[in-house]
Amino acid sequence: MRRQFGAGGTPAGSSRVLRLDPFSLPLRFDTRDARADGGMRQVEISRDRVVLRRAVRGMRMAINVRVNDFLGIAVREADDGQMLVLVHRDPSLSIPLLVSTDDTEIEQACDAWGEIFALPRISEDTEQVREPAPRRRRHNVIKTRRPRILMRRRNNRLLSEMAVHRDEREIVARD
What is the pTM of this model? Predict the structure, then answer.
């Protein structure tokens, strides 16, 4: 049987929909996911990693994402107030952090989450496109090069250019 974690999630008797405390990391909570089986996924947040666990068509998966892969923290409009979201390039990996109607609470939480994760606050109005990462240097760059010993030889020596010795006596050493 799994351990039950009380941190995160909705406390019993609370009228709040979602409020995560950035100062009590690591956190584990469940959130909605339209593509997952049962419509729910489990999220684990620590200072340097976010792990998303879900099942799709019976196949269980865990997606491990570094915090610095996220674009930033944004405030979105929700049906019951405003929502603070940890935004990823892939919208299905974005994570809701807080839902509230209080603007000061949203501002304080946005500053706290941004400071802990060292991520900027971004606005949802402007389309922020991040440049792709530069291509990594390949480790087998010199694999196609010729070895140094073979560099001394000429490549295209024809057999006809080779010296042929005719009418000479062959000396063979025998016991």
Answer: 0.59
